[in-house]
Amino acid sequence: MDDTEERRTLECSRRFPFRMGFAYCLRNNKIACLNSPNNTGQIKCVVTLMGDTLCDADISFRHKAGKENHMFKTKISPDIQWPLPQVQEAANHLAKALSIYHKLSGDQTFTSAKQVILMLDETMKLLNMGRTSLAFPKRKSIDDLVQYSSMQNFHPSVPSDVAVSFYVHSAKLILAVYHLHIVNSCREISSRHQVECTVQWLNEAVVLFTLALQQCQQLFDKLKVLESVHTHGEKVS
């Protein structure tokens, strides 16, 4: 791992507002409001983000009860947290990539380009998984959304025909509200609305994941060329 790639990886790790795998720092991101991309006014939300958890949220969304539409209000109390596993997964992958560098800090030396290539390949896989954790949220089924344990954290409880999901998509924190109806004993989504906001430190982390991967790939490609030349030279001689 060269100095540039190491620096990018370390810079990325510093963007996470907690020590990865250790104790949290007391740093909250108070987000004034998650906004609707198309200004529908269906949802309003104010949250507090701390590391990989939402530790406070006030939510209101338009809900139809019978023939009446009204704004349903609920909240997540500060003493009840909503985890964001994508952030912790990204941090875990990044910590593993950094541990590869720390192992090289001692007296370890490489005797062939192949050894370095294998190390770089492992590092790139970890960095890519870290970036993917943030950039590509896993899709959940309707049952997963309804049965998700954090759905019990709302006070008052949300209506039975509503599911709520917080997740990260690259640099954005997103709240999605799903309105459901039952067809042949199966739940189906009748409508979906979302609000979102950009989280600056997430944006910086995604950018630095990408830059670190690019640096690794450049070094990887150079070493593959050198290895090929060396192997070809041995065969010719």
Question: What is the C-alpha radius of gyration, as a whole number of Å?
Answer: 23 Å
Q: Return the string of H and E elements.
A: HEEEEEHHHEEEEH
Low-confidence stretches: 21-27
Total of DSSP H or I helical runs spanning 4+ residues: 5
- Quaternary structure annotation: single chain
Mean pLDDT: 83
Main beta-sheet strand count, sense and barrel state: 6 strands, antiparallel
The proportion of residues in beta strands is 25-35%
Strand element count? 9
What shape does the CA trace take?
Answer: elongated
Distance between the termini: 31 Å
- Taken together, the total number of domains comes to 1
Helix content: 40-55%
Structural class of the helices, strands and pairings? alpha+beta
